[in-house]
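Re: the request from the purification team.
They wanted to know what the chain is likely to look like in 3D before they choose a buffer screen. I agreed to run a prediction and write the result into the notebook, where they can find it.
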Amino acid sequence: MTAGYGFTGFLDDYLKLSKKNSKGLAGRYKIVLQTLFFLISVFGLLTDWSGGVPHLLIDTKLTVPFIPTRYANPDLGWVYVFFAWIVVVGTSNAVNLTDGLDGLAIAPTIVSALVFGVLCYVAGTSLEIADYASVNGVRQFVGVPVHQYLGIAKVEGGAELAVFCASIVGAGISFLWFNSYPASVFMGDVGSLALGGALGTIAMLSKNELVSAIVHGVFLTEILSVMIQVVSFKTTGKRVFKMAPIHHHFEKAGMSETKIVIRFWIVSVLLGAVALGSLKLR
């Protein structure tokens, strides 16, 4: 998914540079390629075809934030594939839209990867936590798997996903060193689509699709501002924001680029803390 979405972004950047055209790859072709790579991943790598009847190898149940899985764990069945497509493609394009100011997209990406790293590790580790339980009528300490203690879904290979998340954090910090204002290195679509696709896929594999709406609050706000602007202008002829995505709205309102970026970073960190807090509040 990361490589496929990076390839899609590469095509867009290549067309912009070679054709000297700021439009690059048309939006509909981006969606087609993103959907193609998503379907290849899900049906080619995450589906078992050996039994004659296709069987998804990924959990189609949703984990609801702040609620233990024993109380809320709805199973979407094959509808989950469409839901996961929205999460992955939406996250990829949201990160792409956020990448409009120096350092604006990469810092929330680092925060998201760090949060997902923790969530993946606790969902996939074989470690146990001592907890009270009744054994033969006697209340005593017993070893309980971390995921069971926290009331979250078990994720096979979650600890390996945590390593991938850590690599994004490390690469992101290194990139931010050169991407901070004024930037000397730029992410481009090859970076933003790849990172967004990676984060969306991690959310899918780690069963944190709904939690990702909290972790990716900055990205979600950016893409929603564009959608609201387009719908409003087409239906009423009026714009809700001075300019979309929303970080440009604040620029038009007179706020400096540095202040916008830092405040978005702060919001991202707070949202990451809320997402991690959902573990304890379960």
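For the purification team: The longest strand covers residues 128-135.
Please add any questions underneath this entry.
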